[in-house]
Amino acid sequence: MVSGDGDVTVTNDGATIMKMMEVDHEIGKLMVQLSQSQDDEIGDGTTGVVVLAGALLEQAEGLIDRGIHPIRIADGFELAAQCAVKQLEAIAVPFPIDPQNKEPLVQIAMTTLGSKIVNKCHRQMAEMAVDAVLNVADIEKKDVNFELIKIETKVGGRMEDSVLVKGVVVDKTMSHAQMPKTLRDVKLAILTCPFEPPKPKTKHKLDVTSAEDYRALREYEQEKFVEMVKMVKDAGATLAICQWGFDDEANHLLLQHELPAVRWVGGPEIELIAIATGGRIVPRFEELTADKLGSAGLVREISFGTSKDKMLIIEECLNSKAVTILLRGGNAMITAEAKRSIHDALCVVRSLVKDSRIVYGGGASEISCSLAVAKEADQLSTLEQYAFRSFAVALESIPLALAENSGLHPIETLSELKSRQVAENCPNLGVDCMLTGNSDMKKHNVVESLHSKKQQILLATQLVKMILKIDDVRSKNQSD
Fold it and tell me: Predicted confidence band at 390 (pLDDT cuts at 50, 70, 90)?
C-alpha cells in the first residue's frame, strides 16, 4: 500500500490493508468497519470475516434476482448463522491452559503466524507471544491486561534478535554520557515535575540592573537545583526518571552528586515503569519520600550495532508482570509488520485464556458448518431454505480461497473434503495447504479459537443483514 504522502506499507494483515485503502463505495466502507471490529474484539481473523461477508452478499444477490424478499433472506441468514454457531460449539474441543505446559499454546500462536511474513522465525515469535501473555495473565480470572505488554521496535539487526524482556524497555539513554551504564538494586524516583527553579505565577518582568543582582539570581537558581537533587538523594533514590527535561546545569549537578537520571520519558512509559517497579509517580519534589520509590534489580543501557542507538532496559522488577517485546528487523517495514503479526498472536492467546475451546482451522470448521447448515435446509419447508443453502455455499468460500492460495484445484479439493467429512464423520479434515497428503488438521496442529470463529460468523451475518435491509442509497449531491 502506498499512502498519499508516499509512505509504503507491505503487509498481508487484512485489517491493515482495509484500513489503509481509500474506499469510496458505501458498502465497501462498511466492510472496512467490519474488519476493524473483528480486529478490536478478537485481533485475528480479519481476512476471514471479510471473505465470508463478501460471499454472503454475493449469494444474497442471486436470491434477490430470484424474487425472494430481502427481509426473508436476512431472517434466513440469521437462522443459518445460529445453526452454524451451534455446529461450531458441537465440534469444539476443550483446550487446557497450563502455564507449565506451553507447547499447545505455542502451536496455536504458530497457526496465527503461519500466514504472516514473519514465518521465518515462526516458532520464536510464537513462544515470545505465549510467554508475554502468560506473564501478565490472571489464569483464575481468565483475564489478560494488554496494557502491561509493550511492543518496541528497533530497526537494524535480524528478526531472530528479537527478545522478550521481563521488564520495561525505554527508547532513551542516561542524560549524561558519563553516568554509569549498568546499575544494580536500583531505587527509582519517578518524577513528573521539571528540574527547574519555580517561576512566579504572576505576569512578571524582572529587571536586573547590576551585576550583583545577576549573581544573586544565578546563585538562587543554583541553590534551587542543588536543593532538588538533594531531595531526590535524601529519599534514597539511586536513579531519577523524569517526564520533563532538565538543562545542562541540572544535568551536571546530577552527575556531580552521582545520581544517574533519564529525561523525557513519555507518559505511557512512565506509567509502565511505575507499575513494573511498584513506585509512585511523584508530581512535586516536596512529596518525594522513601516509600514512593520503585525498585528494580537491574537497569542497563544496551547499544545496537555500531550506531549510537541505545535503549534502557529496566529488569528484575518488583512486579514482574509488565513485559516488553523488543522486535528487530532489517527495515522499518519489516519491524512494523512483525509488530502487527505479534499483536495478532497475542490476541489469539488472550482469547484462549478467556474461552479455552478450540476448533480446527484450514477450512475444516467452515466445511463442517456448511454441511450442517445444508442438512438443516432440507428439513425446512419455508422460503428460508433457500437462504440456508446460500449460507452453506458462502461458508465454503473460505476453504475454496485456501485451496486456491495453495495452488490446488479449489472445486476438486472442496468436494473431496466434503464427501470425506460426511463419510468419516470427522470435522477435523481441512485443506492440506502444505501438500503433505494428510488433511487431518489435528495432526498438522492447525487450530483456531472457537471465540474467534463464532465472532467471524456472527459479525459477517449481522453486516449482511443490515445491508440487505437497505432500500435505497441517497447521497447529498444527487440533485446535481
Answer: very high
Does 46 qualify as catalytic in the annotation? yes
Write down all domains in the chain, each with its CATH number in brackets: 14-95+359-469 (1.10.560.10), 98-166+322-355 (3.30.260.10), 185-201+208-319 (3.50.7.10)
CA–CA separation, 366 vs 394, rounded Å?
10
Of 291, 315, 368, 351, the closest CA to residue 182 belongs to 315
Q: Catalytic pick from 111, 344, 413, 461?
A: 344
Q: Is 432 a catalytic residue?
A: no
Q: Which is the catalytic residue, given 16, 46, 153, 238?
A: 46
324 is catalytic: no
Selecting among 16, 47, 173, 238, the annotated active-site residue is 47
The amino acid occupying position 454 is K
Mean pLDDT value of segment 192-211: 77
- Asked whether the predicted pLDDT for residue 199 surpasses 80, the reply is no
Output the nine-digit C-alpha cell for 291. 516509600
User: pLDDT tens across 114-160, in order?
Assistant: 777 776 778 888 888 888 888 888 777 878 888 888 888 888 888 88
Phi first, then psi: what are they for 206, rounded to 5°? -110, 120
User: How far lies 138's CA from each of 40, 97, 123, 146, in Å?
Assistant: 21, 12, 24, 12
Phi-psi region of 319 (alpha: psi -120 to 50; beta: other; left: phi over 0): beta
What are 50-74's pLDDT values in tens digits?
999 999 999 999 999 999 999 999 9
Lowest mean pLDDT among 261-275, 297-311, 405-419, 420-434: 297-311
CB-based contact 312:172 (threshold 8 Å): yes
Average confidence score pLDDT of the chain: 86
Q: How far is CA 67 from CA 33, 60, 62, 383, in A?
A: 30, 11, 9, 11
Helix, strand, or coil here: 116? coil
- 5 has catalytic annotation: no
Q: Out of 13, 39, 44, 432, pick the active-site residue.
A: 13
> 3-class SS at 177?
coil
Q: What is the phi-psi region of residue 236: left when phi exceeds 0, alpha when psi lies from -120 to 50, beta otherwise?
A: left
Question: Which residue did the predictor score with more confidence, 89 or 247?
Answer: 89
Burial class (CB in 10 A: 0-12, 13-18, 19+), 18: buried
